[in-house]
Amino acid sequence: MKKIAVIGVLESLGREVLAFLADGGYKTADVAALDTKAPLGTQASFGEEDDIDVLNLDEFDFGTAEIAVFAGTEELSRRYAGKAAAKGCKVIDCSGAFFADADVPMVVAGVNDEKLAAAGKNMVAVPSPTVTQILLPLKAVDEQYKIKRLIVSTYTSTSAYGKEGMDELFDQTRKIFMNESLADNQKVFDKQIAFNAIPQVEEFIGEETRCEWAINAETKKVLGRDVKVHANCAFIPAFIGNAAYVNVECEKDVDVDEVRKLMKQTDGVIVFDKNVKGGYVTLNDVQGEIEVYISRLRQDASVENGFSFWSAADNLRFGVAGNAYKIMEKWLGKN
Question: Are residues 203 and 241 in the same domain?
Fold first, then answer.
């Protein structure tokens, strides 16, 4: 049996992909855990009880792998993903390195699975976690009401910048409580992140940030048409998770009760929406979860055919690693 290769296993995302494989019944013998900076003898956790040896990516023969999940940096994907595909290995890229390549479809499992058959270069891309947690709940809604415009406001945790981002939040919080100076403690974020909100996620591209641009562009690529999208992205002082308020405008007259019913029927979506104190889901509630949670569903009376909702998910487990795992299972014909 050919192996499943996971690239970037020493980072948070790669570890989550390994966790999905272990939970899915795969054995360490079925998996090649790869990285470029692992000394001989390095291991990574594989499930709750097992460890797996981390192999040198430069020495790995992708001809021995049936599928490869690239969970590292864009640089890593650009350097190795083409080599893997050339060996006949199916490639799932989580880095965004191939967004501009028309022959590399962008897939949200359960939304546009048919794109797997159109992967001309034997490669598919995984969109940002925000796009996944927005479009999956809207799959059936779009089919019935035809979405024409989205306004997305995101509240992103520090895990978007990996361990370094979470460590900076922790260190700043500790220093504030200890009445210590925060001087020279802003290495990841341009402003203090502890007890603050920062209206910038990733670098600026003109008037918008790269994250805001990506939500717009990736939504269009996944849906395959020119939906109008306006995104506003901010970092909040949370360790894990991604939340978004989404305003949706449709071409047809929309019934929010029918929207609620359609979302409840969608695999991977949980609607917890009660108009009482605490009748909604927060980032703390979704850590470690593999579904997207929807709350605050209501009519948007400011536009015709509009509604809005709150979406919360674990950005690593659901948004990227979970999507990559579902794509892998579908591509291998197991789901």
Answer: yes
Give the model's pLDDT for residue 334. Answer: 76
* Maximum separation of any 2 CA atoms in the chain, in Å: 61
Can you list the alpha helix ranges (DSSP code H) found in the chain?
12-23, 74-86, 129-145, 162-177, 210-223, 256-264, 283-286, 323-331
Q: What is the pLDDT of residues 68-103, one digit of tens each?
A: 999 999 999 999 999 999 999 999 999 988 988 889
The dihedral built from the CA positions of residue 62, 45, 76 and 287, taken in this order, carries a sign that is positive
Which CATH number do you get for residue 76? Answer: 3.40.50.720
Q: Provide DSSP, 211-252.
A: HHHHHHHHHHHHHTS--EEEEEEEE-S-SS-EEEEEEEEESS
Q: What is the pLDDT, as a whole number, of residue 48?
A: 83
pTM for the structure as a whole: 0.91
223 and 143 together in one domain: yes
Q: In whole angstroms, what is the distance from residue 24 CA to residue 18 CA? A: 10
Give the model's pLDDT for residue 271: 97
Question: What is the C-alpha separation between 79 and 204, in angstroms, rounded?
Answer: 25
| Structural domain span for residue 25 | 3-126+321-331
Q: Are 332 and 112 in contact (CB under 8 A)?
A: no
**Does one domain contain both 280 and 211?**
yes
- Name every residue whose Cβ is closer than 8 Å to that of residue 254 and which is 6 or more positions away in sequence: 141, 145, 248, 305, 306, 307
3-class DSSP state of 74: helix
Tell me the C-alpha distance between 68 and 84, whole Å. 8
Question: Which regions in the chain score pLDDT beneath 50?
Answer: none
Residues 156 and 99 in one domain: no
